[in-house]
Amino acid sequence: MSMHVCITIDTEYSIAGAFADAALQPIADPVVWCDVDGRSEGLGFLLQCFAQHRIEATFFVEALHRAYFRHDPMRPIVGRIAEAGHEVQLHVHPCWSVFEHADWRERVRRQPRQDDFAGRAEDDSLRLIEQGLDSFRAWGLPRPAAFRSGSLQHDDQLYRALARSGIPYSSNIGLSVYDSGDPDYRLYSGAHVRHGVLECPLLTFSDWRLGARRHLKTLTIAGTSLAETCSLLDMAERAGIPLVVILTHPFEYVQSRDLGRAPARRHRLNQQRLTSLCAYLDRNRDRFTPSGLARAAPSGLKQPPDNLLLQGTLGQSIRRMAAQVAYDKYGQLALAAHRFGLVSEYRL
């Protein structure tokens, strides 16, 4: 049986500094579509890439932003994603719920950590999840079967709340992004039941090790080279891991000094990584099944819940870091050159 590979896209709007600066406002569509010279290099690029290589993906769509964006700009976006044949699942950033209150600026000053799920009461987490489910009903979408928390924050209370909500699957854990410190949630791979909810963590691996020191990295398109990703998929398949979960966002396919408020250029390096990965999966369908997370999750129940930590290589890590640093510097120079009128094209 081939291993499921789940490319998951956290699709969300941005607070964009509004909590810290009264002159700023949250940003909606520009951080999802990411238009450059009239072409969508974010969501549009993703949908085109997946269609070209026949990849089913999972879009975890943030659903509490409607407390601020009352005109509901996400509605046509989720319609477009669903029409393209992808899973649309629930993503929740608690910070958006503060806009339910007229005195939200004062509340943020008193309690700046508005986006935390960790440490939140179970009943309050359940309330936020149910608000997200209300958004899906308003959008006319099927009830989500999978959940992802904002910033991958999690604790035991969140899983209790998810169980009460009736959502059977989650993908809240990526240990290099957020580690709760609870050994029961130190999950690197596979699928694991917590309070009746099947958690499918983002694959976390060790990208290098020096003596007793081991560095952890979570598998993302923006933070992992194609060579690393393919090596990890090969290792996971040989080890019998039932599914591998990968993370990305639409805004990672452009570069900008202030996305939504300043010009952007396409991020060629990240676009090439995703395009090449999709082509690799398409060529190797005898070994890998690209699929939505809810479709893949039941495979995790068919074998013991191994929690393997895969090991990358220092050489691959060094090459990836060098490429990213060089490309980021090049991108910033290109943006600056355009700003001062030295070049007229961002898409190089």
Automatic annotation (TrEMBL):
<dbReference type="InterPro" id="IPR011330">
    <property type="entry name" value="Glyco_hydro/deAcase_b/a-brl"/>
</dbReference>
<dbReference type="GO" id="GO:0005975">
    <property type="term" value="P:carbohydrate metabolic process"/>
</dbReference>
<protein>
    <submittedName>
        <fullName>Polysaccharide deacetylase</fullName>
    </submittedName>
</protein>
